[in-house]
Amino acid sequence: MATTLDPLILDLVEWCSKERRPYAEVIEAWRTSCPRLTVWEDAVDRGFLSREPAEGRGVLVTVTPLGRRFLQENGRIPSGR
C-alpha cells in the first residue's frame, strides 16, 4: 500500500542500506515531532529496518530483506545487489 510518505521512507531505507548506522544517528536524523510525519516508525512497522545489538558499537540499524526488496521494486538498487 503506497502512501504519501513512501518517497521519504525510500530515502531513509536507501540511506541505511549504504552502511549499518548507529540507532542514535538514525533517530537524530529522521525522528520528527510531527504526528503526521512518521517516516522512521513506518519504515520499522513495515519491516524495512531492524535494530540489532553490535558488541562494542551499541545498537545498529540495518535494512531487512523486505527493505531491500522495497528498494529494488522502486528502482533504488539493482536486483543483483
Molecular structure report:
- The protein has 81 residues and is of the alpha+beta class.
- It has helices spanning 6-17, 23-30, 39-45, 65-73; strands at 21-22, 49-54, 58-63.
- It has a three-stranded antiparallel β-sheet.
- A hairpin with a 3-residue loop joins β2 (49-54) and β3.
- α1 (6-17) crosses α3 (39-45) and α1 crosses α4 (65-73).
- The longest helix has 12 residues, at 6-17.
- The two termini are 24 Å apart.
Number of domains: 1
Q: What is the CATH superfamily classification?
A: Winged helix-like DNA-binding domain superfamily/Winged helix DNA-binding domain
CATH class: Mainly Alpha
What Rg do the Cα atoms give? 12 Å
If you consult CATH, what is the topology? Arc Repressor Mutant, subunit A
Annotated CATH architecture: Orthogonal Bundle
Helical percentage: 40-55%
The H/E string reads HEHHEEH
Q: What is the chains' assembly state? A: single chain
Uncertain residue ranges: none
Number of helices: 4
Structural class: alpha+beta
C-alpha termini separation: 24 Å
What share of the residues does DSSP label as strand, in percent?
15-25%
Mean pLDDT: 87
Total DSSP E strands: 3
Q: State the major sheet.
A: 3 strands, antiparallel
Characteristic key phrases:
81 residues, 4 helices, globular, Arc Repressor Mutant, subunit A, 44% helix, 3 strands, alpha+beta
In short:
The protein is α+β, with helices and mostly antiparallel strands. The chain has four helices and three strands; from the N terminus they run αβααββα. The chain has a single domain (6-73), classed as Winged helix-like DNA-binding domain superfamily/Winged helix DNA-binding domain (Arc Repressor Mutant, subunit A, Orthogonal Bundle), CATH 1.10.10.10.
